[in-house]
Amino acid sequence: KARTVAATNMNETSSRSHAVFTVILTQRTSNLAAGTTTQKVSRICLVDLAGSERADATGATGMRLKEGANINKSLTTLGKVISALADAGASRRRLSKLKKAALEGAYIPYRDSALTWLLKDCLGGNSKTVMIAAISPADINYEETLSTLRYAERAKRIVNKAVVNEDATGKLVRDLQEEVAVLRARLLAIDAKAKDRKERSDDEEDEEEETAEEQAAHVAAFREADAELSAMKDQLQASEKLIADISESYEEKLRKTNAIQLARERALEDLGIAV
Asked: Which residues fall in a compositionally biased region of kind Acidic residues (predicted)?
């Protein structure tokens, strides 16, 4: 509703500005057993770009002409950013690991316009981006259509590898909890296997006397299983202790952050500033 539109010779409702609508989604997962809370954050950006235009075709004058110039300037900067990202992606696929690391610091002109700065994370950050090119089949719009298709062709060459935006501490705790679950399952399996061996050994002793070699083999098997069981118990205890330490430090940091925030709010209230 707040977007500016005006009539030109090419369009009765021509957009005189770009529109960016951002939705931030936060997912918090609480583990009551471990007493931990993990958080994942996602941001969805819906962008509607105003089309580039030629002043002689639109017949724009005064304020409309200035608006068109600003639109074209921001789109030109966006084109430079897209080209730089596309070239970096193509070079990254060809270069060695050492040169790839150097390429990570390549200059991308995000700061050259407000539009590209707003779209920084959408274009070259930890994101998945879809661009829809709106073109016209009319011959009078040939130049605009060609320019739009060039945009789309360059944008296709941008390569991003998106990963889940998850709190590092929460991810570590989750991985450790999965490891603990696996260790517990293995402990149960080994314990059941040891009991089964013992029962079979008792049955065999009832039927007939074992030879010395068989007795030695059974003793060795039991000792091996017992050693493996002991090692896994130690590993399980270490993982559970690490989870407790990490969770405690995370909760302590959260308490300190909340205390600092509360102190700031009180200080602002003392100055007569409402929060």
From this structure: 202-213
